[in-house]
Amino acid sequence: MSDAPKQLPLVLAEPRGRKKPPRHLADLDEDGRKDLLTEMGLPGFRAKQLSTHYFGRLVDDPAEMTDLPAGQRDELVSALLPELMTPLRTMEADKGTTRKTLWKLFDGALVESVLMRYPDRATVCVSSQAGCGMACPFCATGQGGLQRNMSTAEIVEQVVAGARSMARGEVPGGPGRVSNVVFMGMGEPLANYNAVIGAVRRLTDPSPAGLGMSARGVTVSTVGLVPRIKQLTEEGIPVTLALSLHAPDDELRNELVPINTRFSVDETVDAAWGYAEKTKRRVSIEYAMMRGINDQAWRADLLGDVLRARGDWGWVHVNLIPLNPTPGSKWTASDPKDEREFVRRLEAKGIPTTVRDTRGREIDGACGQLAATEA
Length: 375
Description:
Blueprint: H1 30-39, H2 46-56, H3 70-80, E1 85-93, E2 98-105, E3 110-117, E4 122-125, E5 129-131, E6 146-149, H4 152-167, E7 180-183, H5 193-204, E8 218-222, H6 226-233, E9 240-244, H7 250-256, H8 265-279, E10 283-289, H9 297-308, E11 316-322, H10 336-348, E12 353-355, H11 369-374
Parallel strand pairs: 4-7, 7-8, 8-9, 9-10, 10-11, 11-12
Antiparallel strand pairs: 1-2, 2-3, 3-4, 5-6
Helix pairs in contact: 4-5, 6-8, 9-10
Active site: 112, 367
Pfam family, one: Radical_SAM
Cofactor: [4Fe-4S] cluster
């Protein structure tokens, strides 16, 4: 493996002169929506009607917004409901219950989202950046670099699109609703902190201001931006924090997750523990199992020791992820027997451990593969 870079900036700068995404009602809170319409000489009270259509009724056709005056409808929709993204391709797996969509943003950037329906829930996995600047060598998105941050509304629209599909019965199983959102798509969510927190607030704001989801159904992942984890701890939004650890020792993690050269394993796990202590929400430790790289039995023991050192009150849960390999990559999934031994050793140390149900392997399941192929 090559030497890891010594530093990665906490937030990577985007190119100057880049146009911003269209402003959308999901970028604004209720007061902001009213103020925008008023500034445009339009009735402020129409903002609530537009929000009801978007978040409550999941309408995307202005012709169905019959409570808006015909003479102002186009202007109102243009002001607060501009088109944000266009679906280029949707691929299905698991008999149609897994749907991966490739989206083209207004400036041509490509991102992906995935809708996964289970018997007891429906989850949307969203992207928060076009590309990613964290440079993890086993990640398809990380190899492409960062193009730009996504806006709050672009993030929210991925969930609303999934909610529409569920409500309209387009996913096998009949009409339903989205119950969970995971920020585990393209990008490092905490490197786009303000937009991600804005999206979380829109997802959890009561309808019609937002989608009215429970914060406990929202998971925000990070590779370990320690200052941002601490900032999230103080937000007062009890989302689930998922820490993509992937190695329990600095020597290996420096190579697998280059930001570790700035924030060590100890610092990162301490920040996650602080989040759990403050919010009383159990943290999920994400660990991609890579054959011969990080799946040794002794690393399972070390991981258990690192996590137990912070407390044994059930503050943490380990989620082992069978690696979804990318074409031509040397990174491959662990042997099942090594995976089982890893689980056994963690459980022997009292660490709750599960192996993620991987979906979508036949549709370029690893995040970033579809966008890379299209590009």
